[in-house]
Amino acid sequence: MARPITPLPATFLPQRMVAAHQITLCVQTLNGLAVWLGVIDWREGLSILSLNLLIMFALVLCPRCRLLGPNFARLPNEDAAQGAVALTFDDGPDPTVTPLILDILERYDAHASFFCVGQKAARHPELIREILRRGHSVENHSDRHAPAFAAFGAGALLGDILAAQRVLSETGGQIPRYFRAPMGFRSPLLAGVLRRLDLTHVAWTRRGYDRILRDPHRVYQRLIQGLTPGDILLLHDTRSGKDTPPLALEVLPLLLDHLATQGLRAIALPPNMGIPHATANREPSLHS
Fold it and tell me: Quick check: 78 and 84 in contact, CB under 8 A?
């Protein structure tokens, strides 16, 4: 059984600041100073403030950037050198789709990481255990997959991610090491929350948009175009609608055949990415 999840206490504000915070603070300090000294007038200062905030918002919509905190979009160099490509699946587990994905992976002797939604995992705990039994990894994809996840405050982020972390670890007996934000949109406050939970954010190198596109060959082409060792690929082990067949079931065999012809192998995310943090013995308030 996995050990209890006990978040680290919140750190002082300067320790929680990521690169984007530091740049914004620097720009706004210089902006305010310039207005105060009369170098620019207040209207120009307001324009600079608005532009600065707009850039921060744009970073939220940038899944692979690192200005909002540690973020892996590729495998470590040692794994890439061995011809590894990481397969990741989001938004499951799904009682219909996930077992079929597992069967395809087993047929090809391939492995993957499943970023699971906590509430779905609670409804289908047997699927979490089956994913792990077949040699794959289970990672954290939030508890509710809320559309407004990137707009949550620090307390709401902690509560949501912690709820999923507890469900996944208690169900599978292994504590997830990685987190992926819903839709890849990250709050500027997320990095500090992940640090408290000893989680590392993982994005992707290329995604197939299998929940948006309707043509499996277009999805397949998006995944293999420019594919290189060390890439992290994103698909989904769930349906995009009740009447829409999951394209991953058609794309995955094509993708795995392509990897074989290129001498590449599909792996789950290795457990050694990122820098581990110490584990605290005290559980703080979810609103601290």
Answer: no
